[in-house]
Amino acid sequence: MSRYIIKQTSLLIPTLREAPAEAEARSHQLLLRAGFIRQLAAGIYSYLPLGWRVLRRIQTIVREEMDQAGFQELHLPAMQPAELWERSGRYGAYGAELIRLQDRHEREFVLGPTHEEVITALAASEVNTYRKLPLRLYQIQTKFRDERRPRFGLLRGREFLMKDAYSFDRSWEELDRTYQAVRDAYRRIFTRCGLKFSMVEAEAGAIGGEGETHEFMAPAEIGEDTIVSCMACGYAANLEKAAAAAGERAADEAESQAPAIEKVATPNTRTIEEVSAFLGVPSSHILKTMIYMADDKPVAAVVRGDHEVNENKLAAAIGCVTLELADPQEVLKVTGAPHGYAGPVGLDIPVYLDRDAVLHGGAAAGAGEEHAHVRNVVPFRDFQPAHIGDYRSVQEGDRCPNCGETLHFAKGIEVGHVFKLGTKYSSVLDAGYTDEAGREQTMIMGCYGIGVSRLLSAVAEQSPAEQGMCWPLGIAPYSVHLIPVSAQDPEQAAVVDQIAKELARQGVECLVDDREERPGVKFKDADLIGLPLRIVVGKRAGEGVVEWTDRRAGGRTEVAWQEAARLAAEICSASWETL
Predict the structure, then answer these.
(1) All structural domains of the chain
(2) DSSP code for 479
(3) What phi and psi, each to the nearest 5 degrees, are found at residue 316?
(4) Checking DSSP bridges between strand 545-550 and strand 556-560, what pairing results, if any?
(5) Which part of the chain is the Aminoacyl-transfer RNA synthetases class-II family profile domain (predicted)?
(6) In angstroms, rounded to a whole number, what is the distance separating the alpha carbons of residues 125 and 271?
(7) What are phi and psi of 258, to 5 degrees?
(8) Taking the CB of residue 544, how many other CB atoms lie within 10 A of it?
(9) Are strands 372-377 and 108-111 parallel, antiparallel or unpaired?
(10) Of 209, 206, 199, residue with least CA distance to 238
(11) How far apart, in whole angstroms, are the C-alpha atoms of residue 339 and residue 370?
């Protein structure tokens, strides 16, 4: 039998009639039901033959495009010395998601969630002159993160397959060119995988860095990220990064003429809603004061009552490694009041005031004592903020920071992320080189990731098929599903054999359902498996007529078997040329 013709009875494809109750996401349900994956433990999955074939096709596309962008593939250890992470400052800062372990000699190691430290140490030991730069390296490898709550199947797991790439350049200008080359490669990769996607501005998160960063997002209702975009000018960012146009600031004279601050008894009114109702003022006229611990030092963030603090923006402004809400005891110690009654007046800790919280001549705020608030609070008159900036999350109805049009919100799945790291890792891990003038310089780094196994779920999540999946031709496990209604019928068997041989002759991979099952079972399984092209051989086999379906376009038609084979080969050939 040709390697292009695969019989279904020889494959492990354990389809399920119903999805397990714990599978929430559509992609998770479909991949389980179609026999692509099976769970071993929470957030840990086995890839069965069909799922692994899709992953291999995705990896092939990734390799081709990264090679074309000038990157070299290597393979780095998953088990990494903790010492490297301590030198970079991330061993303690990465948090509980970092899986730590000891060997028999009690030496500390981590299972790599990412490889910035390892690749930088490698470059530091092997590259010492400008003649070896720029250097571009990548790998496809299993990563490990101890997710608190693994969910949505492959979208948030504890073990996953990732492509991570790293660049080492001599200058920021050189990094700019590398960064653009990778972004172009990513667009080609996701397009070839049949994914709908957009590139948005993003925050660097635990990876860090000194320059811009972008995420590639696949729109999907199940997505845990929010894409904020402007239809008018094309602005796009994730919610962590997105900005809104600043509101109009109140006139200085209105502030100077505001009534004096006034304390008001507000028994048992902790929340913004309760304070708003009690004082008879809109939530936008209340200053919400949140106390945080920034690297174990208290700071206050002040936003309008109808806004929420954006902790990523706040952490970036402070320049801290960790940022957490203060516990009730710390709030009482710092403000003199329990949670719900803290205010900016009288605080002796740094106050970060959101720019949109200074729009009014006076506002209400916590009085710094239980069961009391104050009216007519004016920044700079009644309290001195350490900084004013954009520290809030954008909301539905906000205006675009570029053109002023209304911003739109949509859910998305992060499938890729690119970073300009600068010298964050190279400076602390001694990745330097000697330039043309003999001077010591520090390498300028970039980092570029793609969630390879996550792509499997993202494409499945966007699948247009109602009863199962419809894989894009570029990554489908097989191109054609050849289904005889009755495997025992000699006329059908003869036509199936002719079609399979013709497709194999033209290099088209074909899955033949040779099982002795009822037609309904075969068709339901075929819908689940989701091959893009389908040929059904039934009662008109003796006439040489079969049913042809291009599931990407929908609709079925009866044609001669030679025409079905020709159409399949033609479509696949066109797809190969595109790829």
Answers:
(1) 5-9+466-578 (3.40.50.800), 42-242+409-461 (3.30.930.10), 252-389 (3.90.960.10)
(2) S
(3) -65, -40
(4) antiparallel
(5) 43-472
(6) 56
(7) -65, 145
(8) 15
(9) unpaired
(10) 199
(11) 9
The Cβ of residue 302 has, within 10 Å, a number of other Cβ atoms equal to 27
Reduce the DSSP state of residue 145 to 3 states and report it: coil
How would DSSP label each residue in 55-123? HHHHHHHHHHHHHHTT-EE----SEEEHHHHHHHTHHHHS-TTSEEEE-TT--EEEE-S--HHHHHHHH
Residue among 328, 268, 281, 272 nearest 305 (CA): 272
In 3D space, the residue among 192, 136, 141, 143 whose CA is nearest the CA of residue 165 turns out to be: 136
Are 452 and 55 a contacting pair, CB within 8 Å?
yes
Could you give the count of Cα atoms lying within 13 Å of 535 in the half-sphere of its Cβ?
A: 33
Provide φ and ψ at 307, rounded to 5°.
Answer: -115, 165
Structure tokens at 278: 């009690």
For residues 563, 567, 568, 571, the Cα torsion angle rounded to the nearest 10 degrees is 170
Backbone angles phi, psi at 406, to 5 degrees: -70, 135
Which structure tokens are listed for 231?
A: 């239809």
Distance CA(27)–CA(474), nearest Å, equals: 18
CA nearest neighbour of 525 among 534, 40, 537: 534
- Is it true that the peptide bond before 134 is cis, omega within 30 degrees of 0? yes
Distance separating alpha carbons of residues 342 and 243, to the nearest angstrom: 27
**Cα 476 from Cα 54, distance rounded (Å):** 6
**Residue for token pair 């966007």:** 462
Q: What is the pLDDT of residues 482-523, one digit of tens each?
A: 999 998 899 999 999 999 999 999 999 999 999 999 999 999
Q: Please give the structure tokens belonging to residue 126.
A: 């092997």
Q: Using CA atoms, how far apart are residues 147 and 144, in angstroms rounded to an integer?
A: 9
- The number of beta carbons lying within 10 Å of the beta carbon of residue 265 is 10
Q: Residues 261, 346: contact at Cβ < 8 Å?
A: no
Q: What is the pTM of this model?
A: 0.87
Q: Which of 391, 364, 203 is nearest to 300 (CA)?
A: 391
How long a stretch of residues is the chain? 579
- What are the tokens at 512? 């033949």
Output the pLDDT for position 359: 64
pLDDT tens digit sequence for 48-107: 999 999 999 999 999 999 999 999 999 999 999 999 999 998 898 888 899 999 999 999
